[in-house]
Amino acid sequence: MRKLFIAMFLLVAGLIVSVFDDANAEGREDSVPVMQAAHFEAEDLDGNAISLRDYEGKNILLIFFTTWCEVCQQELPMLSDHYESLQDKGIEVLAVNMATSERKDTDIEPFHQGLQMPIVIDREGRIAKSYGVQGIPTTYAIDEQHQIVKPFYGPLDKSQVLKAFE
Fold first, then answer.
1. Could you give phi then psi for residue 40, rounded to 5 degrees?
2. How far apart are CA 33 and CA 157, in angstroms?
3. Which residues contact 153 (CB under 8 A, 6 or more apart)?
């Protein structure tokens, strides 16, 4: 009987804590602890060096992707279609191909055709690791001071991007 009482007490206490945490979280779902963006250098598809420092003083949408990711196959062309309008709003778009997660090294070549945004290749997985990428697509909204202001996990659209930089 005592074990049943203890189990019931722990269950009720857990529910109360859970409800309390949910109530405190209301209205704060968009708040993210400020984190500094990790600087990196990598090569684009033509072998040119690109650094995050190249984007000093600019808002950046940093997208981690693979070519076999179905969401990425839809999201990158959509963001590419809005690339110039995002730039007009002061948002640079930079895509990072997670080469260590690709099925074949050559998969990126046909995938990038028609995409307007720069694409860098994370050949050894160091960039993704420095950002703690666990799944794809993972995207970070990075402000002019290179602070991560909003992470996105999974699909996103232009309106979400614009809202992150308001």
1. -150, 165
2. 23
3. 135, 138
Asked if residues 49 and 41 have their Cβ atoms less than 8 Å apart, the reply is yes
CB of 97 within 8 A of CB of 123? Answer: no
How far lies 8's CA from each of 13, 45, 69, 114, 133, in Å?
Answer: 8, 59, 44, 60, 39
Q: What is the mean pLDDT of residues 137-154?
A: 95
Distances (CA, A) of 154 to 9, 50, 62, 137, 148: 38, 25, 13, 5, 17
pLDDT digits 0-9 by tens, 113-139: 889 999 999 999 999 999 999 999 999
Q: Give 100's pLDDT tier (boundaries 50, 70, 90).
A: confident
pLDDT tens track for 20-56: 344 444 444 445 456 899 999 999 989 999 999 999 9
Predicted TM-score (pTM) of this structure: 0.78
What is the DSSP code (8-state) at residue 144?
Answer: T
Pull the structure tokens for residue 113.
């055709």
Whole-angstrom distance, CA of residue 11 vs CA of residue 9: 5
- Give one DSSP letter per residue of 27-87, joined into a string: T-TT----EEPPP-EEEETTS-EEEGGGGTTSEEEEEEE-TT-HHHHHHHHHHHHTHHHHH
Alpha carbons 55 and 92: distance in angstroms, whole number: 8
